Amino acid sequence: MCGIVGFTQPECLSPDSTAAIRGMVQALDHRGPDDSGVWMDADAGVAFGHARLSILDLSPAGHQPMVSAAGRYVIVFNGEIYNHLELRTRLAGCGFVWRGHSDTETLLACFEAWGVEATLRECVGMFALALWDRQTRSLVLARDRFGEKPLYYGWNGRRFFFASELKAIEAHPSFSAPVNRDALALMMRFGHVPAPFSIYQGISKLGSGCSLTIPYACTSDDARSIQPLPYWSLEAVSESGRRAPFAGTDEQAIDLLAQTLSEAVRGQQLADVPVGAFLSGGIDSSLVVALMQSQSSQPVRTFTIGFDEAAFDEAAHARAIASHLGTQHTELRVKPEDALRLIPALPQIYDEPFADPSQIPTYLVAQLARAHVTVALSGDGGDELFAGYNRYPWAQKVNRRLQWLPGPMRGVVSSGMVGVPVGGWDAMNKWLSPLLPASMRMVHLGDKMHKLADALEARSSAELYRGVMSLWKSPGQLVLGSREPLVLIDREQTGLPGLSFAEWMMLVDAQASLQDDMLVKVDRAAMAVSLETRVPLLDHRVAELAWRLPMSMKIRDGKGKWILRQLLYRHVPQALVDRPKQGFSVPVGEWLKGPLREWAESLLDEHRLRAEGYFDAGRVRSAWLEHLSGRRHWPLQLWCVLMFQLWLSSRTGSVHAD
């Protein structure tokens, strides 16, 4: 795991370019504390930089930027190619003399032998890379199939920049850009800035499974004609899976999944440094750890954190799983003050406004793991590929019933639900809860009923799901001067024929919120402490198998991830894992009323909001006061605003007025 950065310009590099690129690399030293390097071609106007976290080939033979054996290519690479030894075997007879055993050297040899796109298709791994082709004088950027590794790019003035994180681009002395208000509106809706947008105008994120070629001396005026090209598409995978579905029995499917996922876990343990795993006690992380332990003669190192608040604590479940599997388990009890002390550092860690509150425990468990290992496997991806989120069956059920409810009747029902104040629903819930079974009890019923009322007015399935995934309603009005752009979730299901509504939601999530929320959260948290994370469930061969399986092997008896559960039961007793989905977060709503109240009040001060000019101050203040009084529950909506405000206050040097 590393950090990459660079820039090109249409004229020769000036003498101060060396200091500029070194400063950009230094901004990424947390991603690569073991080594760093720069490479420049002054005449071509190209500068590359690299910060290295040594995982494979700890010797100087793995140093980057790296030049290919024939001298044609220069690369900076962030990630791991898990099948690189197999690729080397396939190159036997091509005359390559290996200098070391790094996967970066393997990549360069494959590029020379097969070309760039063919090599990307053959790679099993996670990566972001930049490749300078001296022969064609062009720059190629590429990102892995699911977007595990980040890559920003874009023009600022006459220079074209790329980097693993925005802070490296910001470190260039000439960089200055206004906030992208349209992207900010998206952030208020989803809690993160979705690709291809970034918080800065002119800077984009490269989409997952894509490459981008920048010709020599290309300028921002040419940008519209230069678009990323996919070398792998999850939509194509889903279509292929529907054309050739799995036709075997349940047991045969479980066996095939066991084989495929075990191979992914085995490949992702390739390292010359200590490897461990995050263990929350949930289905996905428990399965990854179980497969790791089944392949090891030594106890696997596992890590979890616990909270005093019972509703947010899964440590006991993780401890039980670890005990059964025989792992070497490390647990840290986190006090609220530990989490609160982290908040001022969030803009530096997450680089652009990011408002998933589970960013806090994710950083803390990464910090815990880094004290013992350099690589940690995680269980991300299971929900999106195997239908683990509760919202899938819920939204599908609501959507099915809406089809039978005439439009005018929907409006009547919605108006009736909104006509009861949130407090009225909550009072009713308080009275009824003791009479209901535990499975039917709900918290914040009023907020949920009002959100359901919005869903009833949806004119399409895409609009329904957009509402389910939204935090602020009408964020284009909340963010002054913004016009909310269309993103992947706005694409109608009719554009993907043959998918059920649940499958469509899973496909959208795997391409959008997984890439821009879940994987960002893990990457930035882990890299802030120089920990590499790997995600076996996102091996593309696992994804391709998942899309061949019928939905009945994913959702059965009202529960998601059926096939993952069955595989896990081969290693762990069902009683240890068969419980409601809990999630991994912190009680931010209560903190905002308590220990964070003064801090939040300073960032949400009405005069400050009006002076900065990004938000409708009246609407933000109204939500803040409603939350404090208990009339409404707005923790995630307010956290979005607070994370932008905190980011803005930390970036005054790079942001200019628009």
Automatic annotation (TrEMBL):
Residues 2-217 form the Glutamine amidotransferase type-2 domain. ATP binds at I305, S378, G379. L-glutamine binds at D103. PROSITE patterns: GATASE_TYPE_2. Pathway: Amino-acid biosynthesis; L-asparagine biosynthesis; L-asparagine from L-aspartate (L-Gln route): step 1/1. Keywords: Amino-acid biosynthesis, Asparagine biosynthesis, ATP-binding, Glutamine amidotransferase, Ligase, Nucleotide-binding. SUPFAM superfamilies: Adenine nucleotide alpha hydrolases-like, N-terminal nucleophile aminohydrolases (Ntn hydrolases). Belongs to the asparagine synthetase family. This is asparagine synthase (glutamine-hydrolyzing). The lineage of its organism: Bacteria, Pseudomonadati, Pseudomonadota, Betaproteobacteria, Neisseriales.
